[in-house]
Prior knowledge:
Pfam family, one: Methyltransf_11
Protein name: Class I SAM-dependent methyltransferase
Oligomer: single chain
Organism: Micromonospora profundi
Keywords: Methyltransferase, Transferase
Domain Methyltransferase type: 55-141
Amino acid sequence: MNDAREVEDLIAEAAAAPVDGWGFDWLAGRATEERPPWRYARLVADHMTRADAALDVDTGGGEVLAEVPRPPKVLVATEAWPPNVRVARRTLRRVGATVVAVAPESALPFRDGSFDLVVSRHPVRTDWVETARVLRPGGTYLSQQIGPGTMRELSEAILGPLPAPASRHPEQAAADAEAAGLRVIDLRRARLRAVFFDIGAVVWFLRKVIWTVPGFTVQAHRPALLALHRRITTDGSFVAHAERFLIEATRP
């Protein structure tokens, strides 16, 4: 297969592949990413054993929640993207979770003090005031979040040079949590190596993780994709870095 045909086949395959849910199995053998050292899923499972009522905000396809071995009596998840709502409801049947469809950036549709545990993996935006409101006194918020400038090398490979990131700084998240009346008890940060081995993996990732290149389409960004394909062919891979931070806070 010649190079022109190969790149078009790789792009077409990735453009047609489903991106529902929040699993990344499609990238197996085509891309890798280091995991944060704190093992978020294990932390969630451990916290769930001590909870009576728990909420997972922005659950995606419910992938993390579905792995909880001992779910609490009341387990609820929210999700704003309709395709993910369907996936999450199917995925979370086995742990007895109720999935609530919400509007993007809307208030949490629950009474004050409804939960003694709120968790969230890679939330679109954390509403700290709402989080504090739905937590019971003594309750805990645990979240793994996207850090500033995550996957910046990939963003710049498609878009060109970008300004310094102005948001998603862990220190600001901690300050916002404290301002909402929570007490931050843990804050950790990690920089994780991500490697893409073909341009199809890049296309699929950009379709799924939409904030990496806002408004991404194959057609609009084809010249940059072809240039990146040549880099991958020459170097054997393309390396970027994901930024993550863990924050845990309690309601006094």
